[in-house]
Design goal:
The complex is a heterodimer of chains A (about 500) and B (about 190).
Chain A lengths: L1 H19 L2 H9 L1 E3 L9 H20 L9 H10 L4 H28 L8 H24 L3 H14 L6 H9 L6 H33 L16 H11 L1 E3 H4 L1 H22 L24 H9 L2 H25 L11 H23 L8 H4 L4 H4 L4 H12 L2 H4 L16 H4 L2 H10 L13 H12 L12 H10 L8
Helix pairs in contact in A: 3-5, 3-12, 4-5, 5-6, 5-12, 6-9, 6-14, 7-8, 13-15, 18-22, 21-22
Chain B lengths: L7 H5 L4 H28 L1 H5 L7 E7 L8 E7 L12 E10 L2 E6 L10 E3 L4 E3 L6 E3 L4 E3 L8 E2 L1 E4 L2 E6 L21
Antiparallel strand pairs in B: 1-11, 2-3, 3-4, 4-9, 5-6, 6-7, 7-8, 10-11
Classes of the chains: A mainly alpha (about 500), B alpha+beta (about 190).
């Protein structure tokens, strides 16, 4: 009975294969010989990216069963997913964390490929397609953030529109094209939905297939050996010889590590989803609710920091010129260094470049998490003046402390480690500035400080400066203007109490 | 093999029947492509072409002048004049109304002139502050500090029968301040 069953299965298989003729090419692809040294844990990130992409497809389709891409209802459909639909929160969390993992894995994969010289001949086009895949992945991350149609998404679109508007001549048209109308509204969400769900995923599927096809046709990059130089004339023969002399079939020799890592990544995404839950949505996308401090998702935080820290006059040129240059540079890379050493051990500039980029992006990301440039909008009303700063002060100085709070100085300046960090901490300001300098700074502003001359009465200024003059460490006296002291003491010859 | 060159006389000089239909097919498909492209392009660009001239802008009502006390700056909201059925709350727009004197106003867009975040008004210090990148503006909308390169966007206004109306309807951005009055030099605060 069992034998007959096996025969039947084989017959059915043969019937299908006679029509599809896929068994042979699949077997060839699976068993193609790869250099044995590519069966390494360093080579698992490409397949991991593919795994997460497939996971995103599945969870994305699941979310689309409930999600409503309408500006009026998207937010409430996300609430329904979070709270009403069984395990809706988990699917949302998987999709959100999957997106973070995907960007991270794609970046790691790209770094590994670059450090192992895999972008060199004959894999230039594989690299170029990979760069396009990176851009599409970032496009998915940005449009995905819009799908979570909350306050952050709404104001994030405003930021995107403000950046796009700076394109010379075409800017206003680009903004209307991007928003689908004059303002961020229903048409905006609908077109970003179309991008996120149809356009970019379709392109991703096509380009991922192309990327994989080239990996199959050209073979997996051999482990780079210092001193083994890539030359266009000889590489193909050398690689072929290597797969013959020291090669093994991809299945099962190399694939088991990919499989292990793929499962590990899926479990890691699930664990993050389970423990940390879904992302948002934050407040409703109601533009009349302005008590919000929008921030982009993790992978665009560096941009948020950059936009705060660039000098204003450099911002527009930077935004319009640098990204195209970076993309162009990435695309040209394999054509500029298509031959030569592959090993990172003999490519110090490559290693330093990667480190520089990683450190720069990491620093900007960290700074954006702290966002010292944003005023703390409620510091003036919620942060107390620390006790020691008003202990034993005169009525005038206390009045000054009150002015300090009421005039929102605290939103940008911290004392006692609370308050904004837009301006310098003022715990020891009296050491840095004399009385006259304090008055000038308060009234005229300067540096990055607004002028308060129009908003402080003379009495308020006097009180505020009196309070600021008390802000110095016990062991360090306030700054003095020696020349002024001299003039004052000469005009009052009897006073000899000056130290 | 020897019978191959039989038809070559017609293939290089005169147009063969097959070649003619091939070319006709290409031309025919080109025509189809044009017939498709024109409506597709016009559909895709409709949001741009509609906005040409004063397309999206119109005068909207902000309420009675009496709602805005002299010498104060208050938030007002209005419904964007261009509405689609799926817009939900996104068509509700906020702005800051400063009444300088009896019939002298300034109406500022809520959007920071840097990257469009919503600015908040602090009457005590007379400043608008932006929560995103730290832009600050004086009470008259002029730039005080931070990354913005200009003052707040300002809507043109008029008063009709004691009602304040502004010319609005489009998100103001640094590259397209819309009907902004910014060309008028703001006095230094």
């Amino acid at each position: 009975m069992r034998v007959i069953n096996m025969d039947t299965i084989k017959k059915i298989g043969a019937w299908f294969d006679h029509r599809l003729q896929l068994a042979e090419p699949i077997r060839e692809a699976a068993e193609h010989r790869v250099p044995k040294n590519t069966a390494s844990w360093f080579y698992v990130f490409g397949s991991a990216a593919l795994t997460v992409f497939l996971l995103q497809l599945v969870t994305g389709i699941l979310l689309a069963l409930i999600y409503v891409p309408s500006a009026g209802e998207a937010w409430s459909s996300l609430q329904a997913l979070n709270h009403q639909v069984a395990l809706g929160w988990f699917v949302r969390a998987m999709h959100g964390w999957g997106s973070n993992f995907m960007v991270a894995i794609v970046l790691i994969h790209m770094t590994q490929v670059f450090l192992f010289g895999a972008h060199k001949y004959p894999r230039e086009l594989t690299w170029v397609v990979g760069v396009l895949l990176l851009l599409m992945t970032l496009g998915m991350a940005f449009t995905g953030q819009i799908m979570r149609f909350d306050q952050d998404a709404y104001w994030g679109l405003g930021i995107g529109a403000s950046i796009a508007s700076r394109v010379p001549i075409l800017g206003p048209a680009v903004v209307k094209l991007m928003l689908g109308g004059p303002i961020i509204a229903g048409a905006t969400l609908s077109r970003f939905f179309a991008l996120h769900v149809f356009v970019i995923p379709g392109m991703l599927i096509a380009f991922v297939s192309l990327h994989l096809l080239m990996v199959l046709k050209l073979g997996i990059n051999e482990w780079p050996m210092p001193g083994r130089i890539v030359k266009r004339a000889t590489y193909d023969a050398e690689y072929h010889a290597l797969t013959k002399s020291d090669g093994a079939p991809f299945v099962p020799y190399a694939i088991w590590k990919d499989m292990f890592f793929a499962a590990f990544i899926i479990l890691a995404v699930a664990a993050c989803a389970y423990y940390f839950g879904p992302f948002g949505p934050t407040g409703q996308p109601d533009p009349t609710i302005i008590q919000t401090a929008p921030k982009p998702d993790y992978f665009f935080l560096w941009l948020y920091a950059l936009l705060s820290l660039l000098p204003p006059s450099m911002e527009t040129p930077f935004l319009l010129i640098v990204p195209p240059l970076v993309i162009l540079g990435l695309i040209l890379l394999p054509f500029l260094s298509g031959e030569g050493e592959k090993s990172w051990k003999r490519r110090p500039i490559a290693v330093i470049t990667v480190l520089m980029i990683a450190i720069t992006l990491g620093t900007f990301t960290r700074m954006a998490q702290l966002a010292p440039w944003s005023p703390r909008m409620n510091a003036w009303s919620s942060d107390p003046v620390p006790d020691p700063y008003i202990h034993g002060t005169t009525a005038l100085e206390r009045q000054g402390a009150l002015v300090f709070q009421v005039k929102q100085c605290r939103n940008c300046h911290s004392i006692g480690d609370t308050g904004g960090q837009r301006g310098p901490a003022l715990d020891a300001v009296a050491v840095r500035l004399t009385r006259d300098q304090l008055i000038r700074q308060v009234i005229q502003g300067g540096g990055n400080m607004p002028a308060y001359g129009n908003n402080l009465s003379p009495a308020e200024t006097t009180a505020l400066v009196a309070f600021l003059e008390t802000l110095h460490p016990a062991t360090q006296g306030p700054a003095r203007d020696a020349a002024r002291d001299l003039v004052v003491s000469e005009s009052k010859p009897k006073s000899t109490t000056q130290p | 093999m020897s019978t191959m060159p039989v038809k070559d006389s017609s293939s290089d000089s005169a147009l063969s029947r097959r070649g003619f239909f091939m070319k006709l097919g290409i031309v025919f498909n080109g025509l189809a492509a044009i017939v498709l492209t024109v409506p597709i392009a016009r559909f895709l660009l409709s949001s741009v072409s509609r906005g040409q001239g004063k397309g999206y802008l119109s005068w909207v009502n902000l309420g009675e002048v009496a709602n805005f006390p002299e010498g104060q700056t208050r938030m007002a909201t209005f419904r964007n004049p261009f509405v689609m059925p799926t817009d939900g709350k996104t068509v509700d727009t906020a702005c800051w109304v400063r009444r300088i004197a009896a019939d002298k106003f300034q109406v500022f867009a809520i959007n920071c002139a840097h990257l469009g975040c919503p600015v908040r008004w602090f009457p005590q210090s007379g400043l608008f502050m932006c929560p995103c990148h730290g832009g600050a503006y004086y009470r008259d909308g002029s730039r005080a500090s931070g990354p913005p390169e200009r003052g707040l966007f300002e809507y043109p206004y008029k008063i009709e029968n004691g009602v304040l109306t502004i010319n609005a309807g489009q998100l103001p951005t640094p590259g397209d301040p819309v009907a902004s009055l910014s060309s008028k030099k703001v006095p230094c605060a």
